[in-house]
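Posting this for the archive.
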Amino acid sequence: MDFKEAAVRAEELRAQILYHNNRYYNDDAPEISDYEYDMLLRELEQIEEEYPLLRAPDSPTQHVGGEAAAKFSPVPHAVPMESLHDSFSHEEIIAFDQRVRETAAAPEYVVEPKIDGLSVSAEYRDGVFVRGSTRGDGLVGEDITENLRTIASLPMRLNRPIPYLEVRGEVYMSIPSFEALTARQEEREEKPFKNPRNAAAGSLRQKNAGITKERKLDIFVFNVQQVEGESISRHSDSLEWLRELGFTVLPFYYVCRNAEEILKRIEDIGNSRGELDFQIDGAVIKLNDLSQRQLLGSTSKFPRWAEAYKYPPEEKETELLEIEITVGRTGALTPTAVFAPISLAGTTVSRAILNNANCIAAKDIRLGDRIIVRKAGEIIPEVVASVGHREGSVPFEMPTVCPACGAQAAFDEGGAVLRCQNTECPAQLMRHMIHFVSRDAMDIDGLGEKVLYALAEKNLIHSPFDLYRLTKEDILSLEGKKERSAEKLIEAIDASRQNDLWRLLFGLGIRHIGQKAAKVLSDRFGTLEALSQATEEELQQIDGVGEIVAKSVASYFAMDKTARVMEEIQALGLNTKNLNPPSPQQQAVFAGKTFVITGTLPHLKRSEAEALVEQYGGKASGSVSKKTSYVLAGEAPGSKLTKAQSLGIPVIDEEAFLQMIPKT
């Protein structure tokens, strides 16, 4: 292409890459695969190499893609947390070795697995953990100290009192933890994380450290950033030294002396992917001698002494044998492709979720097809495409009846989701019970899926309310249950009768009612009876309750079945009142006002400030618009402050916000 065409294409690529950078680094919700992203970046690099005048200082080829989020305090990195240049072929690795040899005599390399997680810094003084931060843009990260404290594999105290030490590591979610998390998300019909990297990033960047702890993250420490009181000359020595201090370091690495040895180890690491319980997306090659690293230095974005080799996504062809239909908690019928077993990324797979009827139609997937399957993010199998229909095949049609109970199935408005219309469907009932007892709903400790299924098999429960009729003898009849554990379970069930109203509302499993909506409705109506009598029009008038939620709530309480549910709740003694109702005077303080909170406040956590806004009748929003009443800004407020100023929206600090709340 000529210069003019190259300039147009470069601008298109920059816009795409910056968009996907934001989705990947800041939103933890990528829309394309790592390989597709890498190919966009590689194309831009090639254009800028051919036409240097097109290489702008703010090009995504010149800096790390992330940035420090406003919800965390910024942490400047004394030692930049650089990214790595990616290679995709053996020839590029050979060229890297040749470039190194132009400066470093007889170089020695360390080849390591490239963990696919979130890069962090951890600082220690006198052997005690004092601060942790994300990479951010490489120069400034986010303070995530409290969240890192929840990771069991990161030591809070070292085996030796090193005066000062900063290490770099990769926080990740193991494959078993990821599979357990996504199973819970799918059970609740929530949108599951796409891969362990996104799950780890989304979990680590929570304002609520309790959520981070629940997600069971881990960390591999792989580099010494700064150290006082020690002298280290080789990277391989530093890994062993870090292990002695109590860190969990990379489980294996290889010392190599030439490109041939490097390529052999890259292949070995690639072959091990299916045997690991954590996700890797490549191999990292680093110069071992730290003094030689200083000689090579860095570009504006990458160290010249290191290179990452990225494994291409593995795709294989197989035969589609069946499309299996399963039923979720809200009656959604989900299709799953069952195909002839194939080996992908070292594991054997034979099933892949097809999402919905629209997905099947768009790819024209038919029984007996030859299909292409790959592992999205190296973990979740997905059907990429159909590459051949067998003779006489016909387009697949979703069933018209529920496979679990035989009742009529019908599509939602929009035609994407097919649902069983039988509210007594056994498949829905079990999933509903799992949701009812979950931590976010009635929070009944000790009632996991295994216990629920065991109770159902003995015909002891047929609905969530049967739990409140269980006796200690019923629990003791289950295999492995002892006297004390049975007593504790009955006590936990009994204690849940006194839960706040919003927990019961959420536990009932009313479609479109999440935790936040349940709390809004609880605050507005105060009792379950009052809510049950609200009309759809009344519900729509509530700030935060839209047409869909209002229709769903009104429809639920209009059903004959719900009248029986209300009677059971009353008879079983479950609390149906808001235990902490806001007074009319409180609700009037911020009535009709919308707040956006940005930056780090001096004393209040963001969640605490949002709770105060809602407690006093206001609405807490995540984005600035013309409807925003106030922006509550703390330290490092970011782009939300700029937008508020451009729109002329009042900006207040924490002191002014607290003065708006009446003294009690």
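The chain is about 35% helix and 20% strand. The first helix runs from residue 3 to 26.
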